[in-house]
Amino acid sequence: PVSLLAGPISDRFPRRNLILATELVLLVQAATLALLTWLNVIQIWHIIVLSFVLGTASALEQPARLAFVVDTVGKEDLTNAVALSSSVYNVARILGPSIAGLIVAWIGEAGCFAANAVSYLAVILALLAMQLPGRVKSTARLQMASSMIAGFRYLWNTKTLRALMSIVAISSFFTMSFVAMMPVFARDVLHVGPQGLGWLMAGVGIGAISGTLTVANIQPGRRGKWLTWGSVLGPVFLMVFCLSRSFAASLVFVALAGASSAVRNTLANGLIQIECSEEYHGRVMSVFNLLFSGMSQLGALAAGAVAEVTGAPWAIGLSA
To answer: Mean pLDDT, the chain, as a whole number?
Structure first.
């Protein structure tokens, strides 16, 4: 729900300022966690409160950051920019846990949290250094409820956006849950343990990077066809992955599933922003973020419940 509130705010106020404010909050949150850990006074309620702050700030920041891409590059290069952004995210998803593990072994948990806090400075400095094209400032008073209703109405009445959002919602619910179920596959299906799980997760990430780099080279007139192929082939690769009992074959097909998901999600993201009017950009991307993140979490919950009865392969296979 906080993500939806970020939409009208990012349409009304400069998005860079909103991102800067949330990055500062995230910096303070990480620094507080580092300090409490270093002083050895960390309590469960500290973690709960700080997790709430992290989730709230991230929910406010993500829609603004998604919409901010078009402010920096324009719609002509938008799809390539989204693909580059997704590639960086997936590289970080692969390298981040490994680097964190090394830092924890070197200087402990408090040092790792402190390094995380310092990393936000790089983002803040980069935002401050950007030279952005001028944007017409709205002088209208922000009315949250009516602004959100207008955004929902615009999204529902725009056929292309409605279709793209449906793809995001359905695919996120039914096919993204396989990532959450990967530990079960590693332990109970493929019997490869923690090391094998690491390789499976790396395979998903490498596939996702390959998919986003592929999107960057797709000609504008062929994006719709690639979106269709990504939506169709991803579930097929997932079903084959569920049938496999060979670790090597599973690694290949989980990477192909990751690549297909990245193609679908990156193209959907880019096409939604291309089709969206600037007036509603933040509100539309807040709905995109809610559907992409929220539906995948609900899908993982549903897949877990089904897996309790049928086992993980059947649960993910039926979802696919």
So the answer is: 87
Under 8 Å between Cβ of 225 and 267:
no
- Distance (Å, rounded) from C-alpha 104 to C-alpha 123? 23
Amino acid at 96: G
* Strand locations in the chain (E): none
Section 242-250 average pLDDT: 93
CA distance linking residue 239 with residue 313, whole number of Å = 8
Render 167-188 in DSSP notation, one character per residue.
HHHHHHHHHGGGTTTHHHIIII
Q: In 29-63, which positions are buried (b, 16+ CB within 10 angstroms) versus exposed (e)?
A: bbbbbbebbeeeebeeeeeeebeebeebbbbbbbb
pLDDT in tens, 133-172: 665 555 556 677 788 888 889 999 999 999 999 999 999 9
Q: Which DSSP symbol is given to 279?
A: G
Q: Are 3 and 290 in contact (CB under 8 A)?
A: yes
Q: How many Å apart are CA 43 and CA 98, to the nearest integer? A: 26
* Calpha distance 216→223 (Å, rounded): 10
Share of the chain above pLDDT 70, in %: 96
Q: pLDDT grade, residue 179 (50/70/90)?
A: confident
Q: Is the pTM of this model over 0.70?
A: yes
